[in-house]
Design goal:
The strands form three sheets. A seven-stranded mixed sheet has the order 2-10-9-8-5-3-4, with helices on both faces. Strands 1-12-13-11 form a four-stranded mixed sheet. A two-stranded antiparallel ribbon has the order 6-7. Strand 6 and strand 7 form a beta hairpin. The radius of gyration is 21 Å and the shape is globular. The chain is built from 14 helices and 13 strands. It has about 400 residues and is α/β, with parallel strands linked by helices. The structure holds pyridoxal-5'-phosphate. Pyridoxal-5'-phosphate binds next to helix 3.
Amino acid sequence: MSVTSFNPPVRVLMGPGPSDVHPRILSALARPTIGHLDPAFVAMMDELKGLLHYAFQTDNALTIPVSAPGSAGMETCFVNLVEPGDKVVVCQNGVFGGRMKENVERIGATAIMVEDAWGDPVDPQKLEDTLKAHPDAKVVAFVHAETSTGAESDAKTLCEIARRHDCLSIVDAVTSLGGIPVRVDEWGIDAIYSGTQKCLSCTPGLSPVSFSERAVERIKARKHPVQSWFLDLNLVMGYWGGEGKRAYHHTAPINPLYALHESLVMLREEGLENAWARHRRNHEILKAGLEAMGLRFVVREEARLPQLNSVTVPEGVDEAAVRQTLLQRYNLEIGAGLGALAGKVWRIGLMGYSSNLNNIMLCLGALEAALIEQGAKLEQGAALAAAQQAVNA
Ligand SMILES: *Cc1c(COP(=O)(O)O)cnc(C)c1O
């Protein structure tokens, strides 16, 4: 057998990430690789930090992309801010809160869980009560946009509660950044991590993070060295930190950073508020079509993420067969359920560049056809008509 170049099929990505990558970002990846201490590269890194300040709405000096995917951003926050023996309150309402718990326990710290049903946002009152019962807790962690369910939690309120109880906050904004408001300074977030392949529509593999002054002080005052050498911010800061003088830590992923730079330039060109409004408007159009097909949302209306639409699979429908039809016949990817919702829901992403009218119409038409093929009793054409009405509204 002769192995030749890999040419992936061209798909439309409407799952929980990665999302469609804009051609401008793909072409940025193909620009010449230069040295990671080259002055031209260092200048690009400085611009990149400025662009991340804008995306996160922060002035935090320690704002950088971690050279690994969102999960590494999560781990960076936990291993740097939590020490063995600490008490950490972890709010869980889906898959990703469970990973936070794993992180805490692997550090040798104790996770105090605040649990809410999958599909519900985190209940601020439960957090308040838990912090009253555990006055020695040092950190509060929660997921802003739970991609496993499509629920948005009230990050501003949760961070206020954490601060009132003298805790640092760790916020997962992997799916929220670029899709819905994230205001790091205004909300008093201490540590936040995101990902490139969701609403930033960049290729996967990088994790923008940002840390407040309070968080940096906590890191500098640690009694135990950070258990991970690679993610130890004391060392990473030497590379991303001081203007001009940079110490080698690891070889930065040069071309992926060009891509992130380009995606953030595009976000700035569009404007954050406009990007949020586009995600909201497109969600309304998709919703009109899905509801016309009789599909029900998992999350109640006021807590729904516009960029991640979870709907329940109708009775008697083979959910995997539907996804397979979409992929094979329409080159369209939607997401399956994860964790407790596996086999029960579809997750339709409208993230970043994927959040556009063409994708919505393709998805509604293809989903309707696949459901009718599965024997579902649907009025053919109703979904597209309802969506079109929402476009004109
Ligand atoms: C996707 C996702 C992650 C993990 O990001 P990776 O880039 O896949 O490592 C973490 N948290 C949430 C909420 C996510 O949606």
